[in-house]
Amino acid sequence: MSDINSDLGLFNELVEVLIKEEEQHPVADRIDADKLYDSIDLSLNADGMVDDAFKNVLREVLVATPKTATNLFFNQLFGGRQSKAVLGDLLAVMLNNSMYTYKVAGPQVGIEQEIIRRSCDLVGYGEQSNGTFPTGGSMSNYMALVMASDAKDPDCRNVGMTKPLVIYTSKESHYSNAKNSSFAGIGRNNVRYIPADSEGRMIPAELEAQVVKDINDGFIPTYVNATAGTTVLGAFDPVDAIADIAEKYNIWLHVDGAYAGSVIFSEKYKHLIKGVERSDSFSYNAHKMLGTPMTCSIILVNDKKQLHDSFSNEADYLYQTDGDDFNLGKTSFQCGRRNDALKFWSLWKSVGTTGLKDIVHQQFDLADVARDYVRNNSDYELYSYDDSISICFNYKNVDPIKLCTALYEHQITVVGFGSFNEDTFIRLVTINANNSKEDILNFFKALEDFVEKNASLLNVTAGIEER
Q1: Do 370 and 440 touch, CB atoms closer than 8 A?
Q2: What percentage of the chain exceeds 70 in pLDDT?
Q3: Kindly report the CA angle at 75 between 73 and 77, in degrees rounded to 5?
Q4: Exposed, middle or buried: residue 35 (CB in 10 Å: 0-12, 13-18, 19+)?
Q5: Residue-wise pLDDT tens digits, 181-192
Q6: Between vectors from CA 277 to CA 274 and to CA 283, what angle results, nearest 5°?
Q7: Under CATH, to which class is 99-338 assigned?
Q8: Is residue 463 very low, low, confident or very high in pLDDT (cuts 50, 70, 90)?
Q9: Where do the domains of the chain lie?
Q10: d(CA 46, CA 462)
Q11: What contacts 68, CB < 8 A, 6 or more positions away?
């Protein structure tokens, strides 16, 4: 068996390979899915590998894996690499604490709670607020839905669902809302998808009309999911107006800020979630706009009693020392839970709140660069709007699905496509704060050069169609 020192030496060697590979080949050579097992030895066998062979196969895996930290990765709602956060994550792996009790986590409990307290302050929640670190944005939304259901139908914790609960979310919201309604026993058919306006934001008047209809039909409005950064357009639902309706009809309001909720760190952009302090719960993902390694999700609640009521359970074999405030398993969905707080704390501690603000601002600045380029070039057509780090566009009359796929398959850049209403388009996400203006302009140049050289492959003809 290898010792930790030699394996750490191997780790450093492989990291050097990865960083050099990222510099020389920002987009990994693609392996066709049906050829994967023939291309790399991924088999698990009775006998172990000798060290040199083991190192070689690890190197092959690193080289072939999509590179999400480079300046040509624009595909997902995460990207880049904040080095101090990476340091914290590596230390968390070495420490290998579980976050359910102070007995086994010690100071890491304080680190997690410090992040939560400061986040609650930024949101505008009061002294009774608290939170926890779920496994991701989908789990954050699920926990909010469970708390909303428990608040509306307290008996369901013991006897199961007894009331016809319904929930509300924008038709542009994250797909987890449908899954979560199924998991929670509410049912997918009891999700009301509220129409969005021309910029992808939930329409409050439509929400209220649906709430009134449901009340008249004998349903119980239970939960409203407002989105801070929709998945495609990056739109922000009007939280303040939605909060008026939620308060009027006594409905739990959750603000899903998984994508862009980190605007809480910026006074310049915090107006995009005006009214968030009126919500019952709020979530954001530090692994998205703030660039920590995945996953790093935080859910905050305005009243910590709701978190405790829904997720606490006695376990004498586990909670043996210290009080509930230090035994975080009393308010988390999981029992065993990895330490996702240290990497975020390491970043926040090293750069300060001001540094996190700068990370957020850089992404909006890059988005402005991209939008200005599209607007000032007649070969492009823009589909998205200001105050978003999703830039949705089409180039000439090239099919966006075909173009995105070809760019990926030819290792030019990694970018995705999306749809809104009847339009389908390329979606460029400027979430990597390590990028510069030159990196954004280089993306467009790479795209244009590729289209010019592959016109026949893409069936390009002159001009663009009018919308």
Answers
A1: yes
A2: 95
A3: 105
A4: exposed
A5: 999 899 999 999
A6: 90
A7: alpha beta
A8: very low
A9: 99-338
A10: 59
A11: 76, 78, 79, 80
Quote the Cα angle for 133-290-20, to 5°: 115
- Residue-wise pLDDT for 377-422, tens only, equals 999 999 999 999 999 999 998 999 999 999 999 999 999 999 999 9
Closest residue by Cα to residue 203 from 229, 228, 223, 226: 226
Q: Is the pLDDT of residue 219 over 70?
A: yes
193-216 tens-digit pLDDT? 999 999 999 999 999 999 999 999
66 in the Ramachandran plot: left (φ > 0), alpha (ψ -120 to 50) or beta? Answer: beta
- Return all residues near 171 (Cβ < 8 A) that are at least 6 apart: 193, 194, 195, 196
The residue written with tokens 């939008």 in the block is: 371
Backbone angles phi, psi at 393, to 5 degrees: -155, 165
Residue type, 192: R
Residue with tokens 């199961």: 160
Cβ within 8 Å of residue 378, ≥6 positions away: 464
Q: How far is CA 278 from CA 175, 244, 335, in A?
A: 24, 9, 30
